[in-house]
Amino acid sequence: MAEKSFKYVILGGGVAAGYAAREFAKQGVQPGELAIISKEAVAPYERPALSKAYLFPEGTARLPGFHVCVGSGGERLLPEWYSEKGISLILSTEIAQADLASKTLTSAKGEAFKYETLIIATGSTVIKLSDFGVQGADAKNIFYLREIDDADQLVEAIKSKPNGKAVIVGGGYIGLELSAALRINNIDVSMVYPEPWCMPRLFTAGIAAFYEGYYANKGINIIKGTVAVGFGANEKGEVTDVKLKDGRVLEADIVVVGVGGRPLTTLFKGQVAEEKGGIKTDAFFKTSVSSVYAVGDVATFPMKLYNDIRRVEHVDHARKSAEQAVKAIFASEQGKSVDEYDYLPYFYSRAFDLSWQFYGDNVGDTVIFGDSNPTSATHKFGTYWIKDGQVVGAFLESGSPEENKAIANVARAQPPAGSLDELASEGLAFATKL
Ligand code: FAD
Questions:
Q1: Of 112, 287, 310, 353, which sits most exposed with the smallest number of CB within 10 A?
Q2: Within the chain, which residue ranges are assigned CATH 3.50.50.60?
Q3: Separation of alpha carbons 21 and 9, rounded Å
Q4: How much distance in Å is there from the Cα of 299 to the middle of ligand 1?
Q5: CATH hierarchy code of domain 353-432
Q6: In which residue ranges of the chain is CATH 3.30.390.30 found?
Q7: What's the distance, CA 364 to chain centroid?
Q8: What is the Å distance from ligand 1's center to 83 Cα?
Q9: Where's the Monodehydroascorbate reductase 3-like C-terminal domain (predicted)?
């Protein structure tokens, strides 16, 4: 089969790939030099929309509405944009083999792609219950959500089960956003997770109590401290119920599982240095192999602010790491350098009329401030994390753009906290006065 050659290849067609493409264009990439190879059938889009407006019954998001870079207020890159720039968008093409020594990628259909410089942007895949041998986990209408095809299947199921029952397995981002989206579609929703509260990797018990109360008021049945151990199905193979470890059985027409992800690094095993489950990079997203970069969910990179190395599975880092890598590639070609990546962690989520942002590091002591009563109309509240006497992390629900900026500034500046009681009573003013 014919071999294609490019100066630059981005492997993966998700968020990082789209933002990298825009940066390539800014840096003056020439027609024919860049290819994006993606197993998805569509041009890069803002993945977070899949668990939010993509599932809404009204105000629904559909492509081409949310192609990158609209999620950060930037230009929307339609498929035509890539052809105008002479960027090859090679879609519906899964790379099955990567040989970094010969700089060759080979697709599942046997096509070979050569590169001079490679950017790995393969993102993550979902962890499946069938991976743990959960009985009946391959029944129909049990969904996972990563790509647009997954979201389309879920939308079909929602339409085909009006006023149906759904069980959401997992209490993280996906669990919380999907429970809200299904409830808005008039589905009867139960959430199941083993931890004592939702989003335990980020939320404190105090933060989680607000969201759990709010969800309960929306009619969502939250079941904590147990897990799904099996699924029943009807003669058509469709899921009918979820069996819990504590013996309870929940009826279900739809199940959505959100129990975490795993970075897609398998193609490169043994060929490149790895750390903390990802591909190890420097502050320019260069890997241990020359001319190979890794960005987004797959990269384990130096987190300068905390003098640590970390992997981050969030959209803001996917965008910024992609831009940093492309800037570094062009700079090095001109014998120049760029500043080291200096990332301030930023996570957010939206569900119902709620919207929160978090900046910094969630370590140390915490104080909660504001109105965290789930039944109140304003529900503006937040939390600071304090380590070694400094505020290192800040969370805010229902903040205005200025207030969110203020908590970001706090997390970056790490000001002295003073007394925790005073910090709690000062609340948001501590950030806005900085
Ligand atoms: P991805 O965007 O996942 O792109 C990876 C691409 O690589 C995909 O196109 C994939 O098909 C392709 N690919 C993988 N392997 C191959 C192969 N072998 N051959 C060809 N192509 C391949 N983050 C937030 O901060 N806030 C949110 O609200 C939020 N919501 C989310 C909601 C959902 C439903 C999901 C799934 C994620 C969400 N995230 C959110 C996380 C965020 O979307 C990811 O961190 C981000 O997309 C990572 O970008 P990436 O480019 O590294 O990977």
A1: 353
A2: 4-125+262-333, 129-259
A3: 10
A4: 13
A5: 3.30.390.30
A6: 353-432
A7: 25
A8: 23
A9: 344-431
Query: Which string of DSSP letters, residue by residue, matches 115-140?
Result: EEEEEE---EEE--GGGGT-BTTT-B
pLDDT at 2 over 80: no
Q: What is the pLDDT of residues 404-426, one digit of tens each?
A: 999 999 999 999 999 999 999 99
Class of domain 129-259: alpha beta
**pLDDT classification of 434: cutoffs 50, 70, 90:** confident
Cα angle value 14/202/419 (rounded, 5°): 135
List the alpha helices (DSSP H) in 275-345. 315-333
Ligand 1 mean position, distance from CA 13 (Å) = 9
Residue 376, token pair as written in the block: 């109140």
Alpha-carbon distances of 282 from 211, 269, 295, 400, rounded to whole Å: 38, 18, 11, 35
pLDDT at residue 56 is higher than 70: yes
Q: How far apart are CA 35 and CA 9, in angstroms?
A: 5
How confident is the model over 16-49, as pLDDT tens digits?
Answer: 999 999 999 999 999 999 999 999 999 999 999 9
Q: Is 46 a pocket residue for ligand 1 (Cβ < 6 Å)?
A: no
Q: State the distance from the centre of ligand 1 to the C-alpha of 17, rounded, in angstroms.
A: 10
- pLDDT tens digits, 146-186: 999 999 999 999 999 999 999 999 999 999 999 999 999 99
Is the ipTM higher than 0.85? The answer is: yes
Interval between CA 147 and ligand 1 midpoint (Å) = 8
Is CATH 3.80.10.10 what the domain over 4-125+262-333 is classified as, yes or no?
no
Q: Is 14 in the pocket of ligand 1 (CB under 6 A)?
A: yes
Closest residue (by CA) to atom 38 of ligand 1? Answer: 48
Contacts of 112 (CB under 8 A, 6+ apart): 1, 3, 4, 104, 105, 106
13 lines ligand 1 (CB under 6 A): yes
Q: What is the pTM of this model?
A: 0.97
Taking CA atoms only, the protein residue closest to ligand 1 atom 2 is: 14
Is residue 122 lining ligand 1, measured as CB closer than 6 Å? yes
